[in-house]
Amino acid sequence: MSFIEAISILDLEGEFTEQDLKRAYRKSTKENHPDIHGEETEEAMKKVNAAYELLKGYVGIRIVHEETETKNSEKRKVNPYEEEIRAFASKLEISYEQAINQYNTYRNVHSYEGSIIDYYNYIINTYYVHKDEIFSLFNQIQHYNGDIFYIIGIYEDNNKDKNISIVEWLKRKVKVKALADALGITIPFLNKIYKQDVMIGYDKEFHEYIDKLGNIILQEEQGIKQFKTILDEYITKKLDKKEDKRLFIDFLDYKMLTLKYNTDGEGILFKMFEIAKKEDSSISFYEYICSLMGEYDDEKKYSKK
Predict the structure, then answer these.
(1) Higher-confidence residue: 178 or 303?
(2) 101, CA 20 to 30 Å: which among 69, 183, 185, 262?
(3) Helix 248-261 vs helix 206-217: angle between axes, to the nearest 10 degrees?
(4) Residue 176, in any domain of the structure
(5) pLDDT digits over 274-296, tens only?
(6) pTM for the complete prediction?
């Protein structure tokens, strides 16, 4: 039986509801039921029942379709930017659901008020454009093959002002790790040395301290090998002379010079003066000492305090 035959038997129009179908079926049953009209209506009743079953299935399918369309429509209303989000997710190599969850997490943790589109434009333009360099640098610090959001999270947690880029921040981290590895100490121990000097009076940032420390050690080939010995000597002197306020980094610089020039105390100054005199033959030893202390002007006029 076709759809056209079925609606003709039950006297229905092309579009009808479930209630319309039930009413038409009851009416046709009264008109064709054998108990009422005799055996001659049996065939007609069979057709009524067949038509009802066929159209009941049709109505069920249509209801499911309409409900599905309604749900899809509601989803589109909730998230009108689905296509754009999927494009971002594809670029970042994450799923659509992960993209939604990542945005919601960031919004909750950082009280972010921007839209999801604003957020992913920020991620793409600020971080993703440097993806290869970011992963390369991070893998020099620790081996990790996760998504970029893990690295971004560490960066933003440790650099809330974002006064340097993530690439520059990672380069500093790589430099710290390289120095710690070369010296055979841990990064926390290196940080502890820095903090001890800060307590005494060092007023520069950690990355500047690391740069200076590295440059001092590289003055002499034995620098790296002698580092722990010099550190032990410094600690011993600090314990023996509690009034000694020298920074470790200054003590290290002094000890590296003694290794470089194979002399101590005043001998280092004379060695350095000899080198300076090669560049300016007119300079006297007194003028050189004053220059080291910053007591000269642009016309190279030196004076005692």
Answers:
(1) 178
(2) 69
(3) 20
(4) no
(5) 777 788 877 776 677 677 666 54
(6) 0.60
